[in-house]
Structures are given as structure tokens and as C-alpha cells.
Design a protein that fits this description.
The complex is a heterodimer of chains A (253) and B (483).
Chain A (H helix, E strand, L loop, with lengths): L1 E12 L2 E12 L3 E5 L6 H9 L4 E10 L2 E2 L5 H7 L1 E4 L6 E5 H16 L6 H14 L4 H5 L1 E2 L5 H15 L3 E5 L7 H14 L5 E6 L4 H4 L4 E6 L2 E6 L2 H9 L1 H10 L1
Parallel strand pairs in A: 3-10, 3-11, 6-9, 9-10
Antiparallel strand pairs in A: 1-2, 1-4, 4-5, 7-8, 11-12
Chain B lengths: L3 H11 L13 E3 L6 H10 L4 H16 L22 E3 L13 H9 L4 H7 L2 E7 L2 E5 L2 H5 L4 E4 H7 L1 H7 L10 H9 L4 E5 L8 E7 L10 E6 L4 E9 L6 E4 L2 E6 L4 E8 L11 E12 L5 E8 L4 E4 L2 E4 L5 E10 L4 E10 L5 E10 L4 E10 L7 E10 L5 E10 L5 E10 L2 H9 L4 H17 L4 H15 L5
Parallel strand pairs in B: 3-7, 6-8, 7-9, 8-11, 9-12, 10-13, 11-13, 12-14, 13-15, 13-16, 14-17, 15-18, 16-18, 17-19, 18-20, 19-21, 20-22, 21-23
Antiparallel strand pairs in B: 1-2, 3-4, 5-6
Helix pairs in contact in B: 2-3, 3-9, 7-8, 11-12
Classes of the chains: A alpha/beta (253), B alpha/beta (483).
Chain lengths: 253, 483
């Protein structure tokens, strides 16, 4: 079943064109890795899909479950099941992760017309999902991300993803700044969430993460377009040959 | 946020009307407009006051004439024409009120609209209410029940008639009639307010509450509240205020005096929601208020908690004089300004006794084009050994066009004093809002979540029902304010 259908997407930020005709189809049950050099438009793609305001879509279309995604506000996209694990998660003083997630779930359930969780059910769910990323209760009761280490913030992103149970999760360079142990914990969390009903877009600069989260497809983004697609072996090839290889490939085209 | 839906939200909410902006058609008895010795005499005569009180008023009035309106606060407004206000407006009474059935039905409807059904309050056995419309207290509930414990809770006017010795002893003992421009004005023309006395060793079994309502046009409201907790007594007191929407500015200059004797405790909570004016700054209440308490005896405690969301201008510094040894003063404040509102508010903690402690937690929230200033004085006098103050002043900015200012003053004359001050300024940035939005929390809900988290320490000080009301008020005051 087609979950996401991006056709010829063009987008700019501060009048600078970044995405220049990107097309991608993601089906339920699939994990797509998007790799590419710095400035190729990886994070722009994540931001455009999540609906960040500063990014202007100048052409193309994005359908999510057959519906025009670009018409929806960021929160409406979240209600429909889109989740973005941020590259740089923000700190919000005065609100604990627990309280934040309680509010998020309430709003999402309300929008979906789903019965609200009772306090007991919510806490049980928290306890269960915290195990996915070896999250400490000390962290969830503290103000959201305030004073968290880089690794703790990324773990918190995956923990939130586990709680919100999205149908399409976009991981924006979740591996950046993680040591190998943290990387493994985060990847394990993601693997536990994989199912035939959801899909992942894993954005990364390095092949390393893909040793742990094994993708079904790898796409290489360069100059705002997907220039090469393949299976997981493409990531290995990239690791060996480097991004210059892609640039040459592009020049040859 | 620039997207269409956000703009619509913003429009919808900023255009939401002030909920309490109705005016009631109550027959009103006015003093002639303007202010003179005759006005003061008129009010005193209307209230059937003894000679000493008239003299006290006249002394205040004559002193006021020589005083200049203070200009040091960080607020700007056109010169007030004090001759253009009515200084006394009372709902016309047809006869002496003996039961609730005698209260003017229109007044009762007014309070019903405010959500303070007097009859309902009687039944709920939770809170004793004194209700003040314009200049006169219209009804005090639970008086008889409180009287059994020796607690006096009545209108100020009634206290003058029935407990003159207490009024004479304490009136002006904390805020002298010549204290400042607005306190002097109040002392000259105050018309009513609430009076409360808790006898020795008595714990007041219910929250005492006064609701103030300005109704008549062009009317100043000058109420006076006097609360005395005798040795070992405890009382928690709540104050709420609303006013109709009117294009002209209305003047409110109240005085509140608290006296806590040895081992006594007074908690005074305010949810101030006077009409703030429209989004262009037209109309709204000028709120110039003097609130001060004295911890007279040892081990006494006074705690001020305020949630200030209303008024075009707020000028208010609830203070504590820590005279008794080991006494404690506290000030917890949330002050919200939106649109064109201006607030200059804070506290004074005057440490005189030994081992006195004070705690100041001030949370300012500025939105729109408003200006919000914290102004606080901590003074430790020569003999106040081991005094300890902790101050925390936080500012939260919702837009790029508003202002937050902090003016802390420290005067320490004793080397054993320990004074701590912390301050933070934060802004609800686009990145935080987008993060919340991405998690399914819309902008309005996100602002509420963040603001409530930010204010929690102050809300925790409020009695439960009041805390809920305060949260609601805050969300109404800030709807559509991010940008």
C-alpha cells in the first residue's frame, strides 16, 4: 500500500532553491534511507514533509495516504501519523517529557476521535515504551530535553516516536553526535517499532547507522534530486567510493 | 506563524471579547462629579461616619492636594483629570437588606453573570463572600456562621459602625493616609471594602473572598480592605475583580492593609481581571493599588499571591514589613500583559526583625505590544540579623514587539544578611512552537502548556478553585498572542 508519494517536489528557503524536482514513493512496511552530501537537501526534505513554515514549496506534489499533505498544518500532519525525529531537538523549560507526551497524545487522540487514555493506561504505556530506548524515569520527569546530553535528546526523540506510534516516521540525522552505544540503543528502538503498517525515512550522512537499521531502499540525494536508488548495498558502495563518485555520476548525466 | 489557519486563529482569538464586559442597569446613587472637601464630606455623611473618621479623611485629602502623582514607574498614560470622575456611586437601596431576597434582582443577575451566585455560595458552604459593586458592599455571606467563632467578616462600612474601636486602632496603621499619592486619595474618598478580624488562636474554617465590580461609568473605585489576624490566627483571603468594557479609562485606587500578630498567618490571593482595554489600548482600568502587610509579632507569616491579567495599567507592589522576629514574607506573582497593557508590579520586603525570611517569585509574561516591569525592593535594616531573601524574577516574551523589564533594588544594612537573586528571560520561539506542532500540539495548546508550566510555582500557591480560574484566565488573555 502506498503511504507517501512525492512527485517532482521543489522547495526553497529564503528564496534559495534547495529541492529541485524530487520524487519518491514509500509503501507501508518499508524503510527508506536517504543519503547525500552536506547541502544536498536532506534536512529540507524532512522539514517540508513535517510542514516547517520557513520552507516554501514552489512546485510538485506530496500525497500522504492519497491526501494532499502540503495543505495541512504541522499539527494536522502529526494527527494523520507523521512524525519527525529532529536533528536538533529543542529544550522546553517548565514542562516534563511526561506532561508533554500526555498533552500530545490527548491532542492526537482528540483529533482522531479516539477514546482518551486513562492515567493508568498512559503510565503503563510510558513504562513499556521507555524500555525500547533504555530511557530513565529521571529523564522523563525532568523538563523536556533541558540539560540533556546529545545522546539523551536523541533517545528522547525515539521514545516520543514510540509513544506517538506514527505511520510515517522521518529520522533526520538521528545518528549525528551519537557514540556507538547510543547509536545501537537508538537503532534498536527503531527496529522494535518497524511493522508492516508503518514506514520510515532515515536521513543520514553516514552508512554506519544503516548497519543497525537495515533499509529496504537507499536513495542518494544530490543537488536537490534523487540521483541514484538501490538496495542496501548502495550504502556500502557509497561508503567505499565517497560522495565525489555521485557528483561525477551527476556530471556525466 | 504565517500560515492561513494560524492567522485565522489569531484573528478569532484576539477579537474575542472580554468576557466580563457587560454593564448592569442598576439604579445608582452618585456623589456630584469631581473631588473637593465637599465630596469627602458627602461620602462620610452618606456612610454615617463618626467625626474622627471624617477628620482622618480630610487630613488625607488636604495632604493629597500637596502631593504629586508619582512618575517613576515604567508606565505611560495621559494625565488623569481627577475632577472628571465620580467618587461615590452606590446601587440605590430601597430598604435595609435582611435576606438575600431583598438584594436588588439586577445586582443578583450581575453576580450570577460573574459566576458568583450569592445564593449558590450560601449553599456550597465553601467560601464566604463579600461582594462590592462600585462603592458599596452589597452582600456578605456566611456572616452568622463566622460570628460563632468570633470572626468578623463584613463590609468596611459596617465595621465602622459596629466595631469602631478595631477600625480606629488599625486603619492606616500599615499604610498611613499620607503614604503615597494614590493611598492618600483612597484614604480621602474610600467608600467601602471588606473588613476581617480573626480572634486569637482561631483558624478561619473557610476561604474568605471579596469580589469587586466596577459598574457605573466614569466612576473611580476606592475600596479599602483591612485584615487582622490576632495571635495564632490563620486566614486565607481571596480577591477577584472585573469591570464592564467602557471606552474611557476608569480609575481604581485601592488600599489593602494586613496585620499579622505573633504566630499568625495571612494568605492573600488575588486574581485581577479588570477590563484591560481593547487591542488598540482604548479604555481599560487604571489600577493604582497599595497593598501592604505587617508581620507585627514573632513567627508570623504573610503571603501575597497575585495573578494579574487585567487593567490597562497596573501599578502595584504588595509588600511585607517583617517586624517580628522569625517572621516570613512571601510574594508570588504572575503578571500578564497583552496588546497595549502596561504593568509595573513587584513587591517590597522590609526586614526589621531577626531571622526574618522572604521569598519573591515573579513571573512576567509579555505579549502583543505590551510592557511588563518587575520592580522589587529588598531592604535589610541594621538590626535584622540573619535575614534571608530569595528572589526569582522570570520574564517570558511572546512576540518581538513587547518588553520585559526588571528593576531590583537591594538595600542591605546588616552584614549577616543573605540575599539571593535569580533572573531569566525566555521567548516562546518559532522552533519551540514548531516542535510542539510536530507532536500534534497546536499553537494555542502549546502556548497554554508552556505558560502553565512556567507559572506552576505561583499557581500552586492558590487555593484549588482559584488556580483553575487563574489558568483559564491566562489562556484567554494570551489566546492568539504568539508572533
Amino acid at each position: 500500500m502506498t503511504l507517501l508519494e512525492i512527485k517532482n517536489l521543489q522547495a526553497s528557503v529564503e528564496s534559495k532553491d534547495i529541492l529541485k524536482g524530487l520524487s519518491l514513493t514509500v509503501n507501508a512496511g518499508e524503510v527508506h534511507a536517504i543519503m547525500g552530501p552536506n547541502g544536498s537537501g536532506k534536512s529540507t526534505l524532512a522539514s517540508v514533509l513535517a510542514g516547517r513554515n520557513e520552507y516554501e514549496v514552489t512546485g510538485g506534489s506530496v500525497l500522504f495516504n492519497g491526501e494532499n499533505l502540503l495543505d495541512l498544518s504541522p499539527e494536522e500532519r502529526a494527527w494523520k501519523g507523521i512524525f519527525l525525529a529532529f536533528q536538533y531537538p529543542v529544550e522546553i523549560p517548565g514542562i516534563s517529557t511526561t506532561n508533554f507526551l500526555k498533552t500530545a497524545l490527548q491532542e492526537i487522540y482528540k483529533a482522531r476521535g479516539k477514546k482518551q487514555l486513562e492515567a493508568r493506561e498512559f503510565l503503563a504505556m510510558m513504562k513499556e515504551k521507555m524500555k525500547y530506548v533504555e530511557m530513565d524515569t529521571k529523564l522523563t520527569s525532568r523538563a523536556l530535553n533541558e540539560g540533556f546530553s546529545g545522546g539523551e535528546k536523541k533517545r528522547n526523540e525515539i521514545f516520543q516516536m514510540a509513544m506517538l506510534e506514527p505511520t510515517l516516521a522521518i529520522l533526520d540525522e538521528t545518528d549525528s553526535g551519537l557514540d556507538i552505544d547510543a547509536l545501537r540503543i537508538v537503532a534498536n528502538g527503531v527496529n522494535k517499532l518497524r511493522s508492516k503498517d508503518n514506514a520510515f525515512i532515515v536521513i543520514t550522512h553516514y552508512q554506519r547507522l544503516l548497519d543497525y537499521i537495515v533499509p529496504d531502499f537507499v536513495h542518494v540525494l544530490s543537488g536537490g534530486k534523487i540521483v541514484k536508488s538501490g538496495g542496501k548495498e548502495l550504502a556500502m558502495e557509497l561508503e567505499e567510493k565517497g560522495y565525489d563518485w555521485i557528483k561525477e555520476l551527476q556530471a556525466a548525466n | 506563524m504565517e500560515s492561513n489557519t494560524d492567522n485565522q486563529l489569531l484573528e478569532q482569538y484576539t477579537q474575542q471579547e472580554y468576557k466580563y464586559g457587560f454593564s448592569s442597569d442598576i439604579e445608582t446613587d452618585f456623589a456630584p462629579i469631581g473631588l473637593s472637601e465637599d465630596t469627602v464630606r458627602f461620602i462620610s455623611a452618606k456612610k454615617n461616619e463618626p467625626g474622627w473618621l471624617l477628620d482622618w479623611r480630610l487630613k488625607a485629602y488636604r495632604h493629597w492636594l500637596k502631593m504629586a502623582e508619582p512618575e517613576w514607574a515604567n508606565i505611560h498614560y495621559p494625565k488623569i483629570d481627577y475632577q472628571n470622575y465620580y467618587y461615590y456611586a452606590a446601587p440605590k437601596e430601597k430598604k435595609q437588606l435582611n435576606s438575600l431576597d431583598d438584594v436588588d434582582p439586577e445586582i443578583r443577575r450581575t453576580f450570577d453573570k460573574l459566576g458568583i451566585s450569592l445564593v449558590e455560595q450560601m449553599r456550597l458552604a465553601g467560601v464566604a463572600v463579600d461582594a462590592v459593586i462600585d462603592s458599596v458592599s452589597v452582600k456578605t455571606t456566611f456572616k452568622d456562621k463566622l460570628a460563632e467563632l468570633g470572626i468578623i467578616f463584613c463590609s468596611f462600612g459596617e465595621a465602622v459602625q459596629e466595631h469602631p474601636e478595631l477600625v480606629k486602632k488599625y486603619l492606616g496603621s500599615v499604610v498611613p493616609s499620607t503614604d503615597n499619592f494614590f493611598a492618600a486619595l483612597n484614604s480621602a474618598v474610600f467608600s467601602d471594602g471588606s473588613f476581617c478580624y480573626i480572634p486569637k488562636g482561631t483558624r478561619c474554617p473557610m476561604e474568605l473572598s471579596t469580589y469587586f465590580r466596577i459598574n457605573a461609568a466614569n466612576t473611580g473605585q476606592f475600596e479599602r480592605t483591612l485584615i487582622i489576624a490576632d495571635e495564632g490566627a490563620y486566614v486565607s483571603y481571596l480577591e477577584g475583580c472585573t469591570a464592564p468594557m467602557r471606552d474611557e479609562h476608569q480609575l481604581h485606587a485601592a488600599v489593602v492593609e494586613l496585620v499579622a500578630h505573633a504566630d499568625a498567618e495571612i494568605k492573600y490571593s488575588t486574581v485581577q481581571n479588570w477590563y484591560p482595554g481593547d487591542k488598540d489600548g482604548k479604555g481599560g482600568i487604571y489600577n493604582f493599588v497599595t497593598k501592604r502587610g505587617i508581620c507585627e509579632g514573632k513567627n508570623s507569616r504573610i503571603s501575597w499571591t497575585q495573578v494579574e491579567t487585567g487593567s490597562a495599567i497596573t501599578w502595584k507592589y504588595p509588600s511585607v514589613i517583617l517586624k517580628g522576629d522569625n517572621s516570613v514574607g512571601e510574594f508570588y506573582s504572575v503578571a500578564v500583559t497583552n496588546n497595549r497593557q502596561q504593568a509595573d508590579t513587584g513587591t517590597k520586603m522590609i526586614h526589621i526583625g531577626k531571622n526574618t525570611r522572604s521569598r519573591i517569585v515573579s513571573k512576567g509574561i509579555s505579549a502583543g505590544k505590551s510592557h511588563n516591569s518587575y520592580r522589587g525592593l529588598v531592604r535589610v535594616t541594621k538590626n535584622a540579623d540573619n535575614a534571608h531573601n530569595y528572589s526569582q524574577c522570570d520574564s517570558l516574551l511572546m512576540t518581538d514587539r513587547c518588553g520585559a523589564h526588571t528593576f531590583p533594588y537591594l538595600e542591605v544594612h546588616n552584614p549577616t544578611a543573605k540575599v539571593e537573586h535569580e533572573a531569566t528571560t525566555s521567548k516562546i520561539g518559532e522552533d519551540i512552537l514548531f516542535y510542539c506542532n510536530q507532536r500534534g500540539i497546536g499553537t494555542e495548546a502549546a502556548v497554554n502548556l508552556i505558560v502553565n508550566g512556567y507559572c506552576r510555582e505561583v499557581f500552586n500557591q492558590l487555593p484549588m478553585e482559584f488556580a483553575v480560574e487563574a489558568q483559564k484566565l491566562l489562556s484567554i488573555s494570551l489566546e492568539g498572542s504568539v508572533g
